[in-house]
Design brief:
There is one protein chain. With 124 residues, the protein is α+β, with helices and mostly antiparallel strands. It has a single domain (21-123), classed as Aspartate Aminotransferase, domain 1 (Alpha-Beta Complex). It is built from three helices and six strands. The chain has helices at residues 21-28, 68-77, 103-123; strands at 34-39, 42-47, 50-55, 61-65, 82-83, 93-97. It has a six-stranded antiparallel β-sheet. Helix 1 packs across helix 3 (103-123). The longest helix is centred in the C-terminal third of the chain and has 21 residues, at 103-123. Residues 1-11 have low confidence and may be disordered.
């Protein structure tokens, strides 16, 4: 289980594997209750009907559901990988440059996003 209080950053020395949306698909699809869909006209993943990942309109950035308390820490730790635009300031999302994130960091980020989406759904 991935802890939500963990800051997910790229670790120095991690092998640089090119991450694409196909990598996102490979990591997200096996999670329970996940379906591939669209959101705002871009490919997306939903868990129990709740969007938790989507490709941003530039086709190079992933929009990821996140914990608001950890988001600023992630950006401070690795601003080359994680960022926001004004649009997302008040929402529990973070933007992730696919060209910068390492596969293992992405795996953890997707797991946390999935947990948040399924947790929100079960509280309704």
């Amino acid at each position: 289980m991935v802890r939500l209080d963990k800051v997910i950053v790229n670790m120095p020395g991690q092998k640089n594997q090119r991450v694409t949306f196909d990598t996102v698909r490979e990591l997200a699809s096996p999670l329970a209750g996940v379906e591939e869909s669209t959101s705002y006209g871009t490919p997306a993943f939903k868990a129990q009907g709740v969007v938790f990942l989507r490709l941003w309109e530039d086709n190079e950035t992933l929009v990821v559901r996140t914990d608001m308390d950890r988001r600023d820490e992630m950006i401070a730790e690795d601003p080359e990988t994680y960022f926001l635009t004004d649009h997302y300031l008040k929402y529990p999302w973070i933007l992730v440059r696919l060209s910068k994130i390492k596969r293992e960091a992405l795996r953890e980020l997707i797991a946390v996003a999935w947990q948040l989406a399924t947790k929100k759904k079960s509280r309704r």
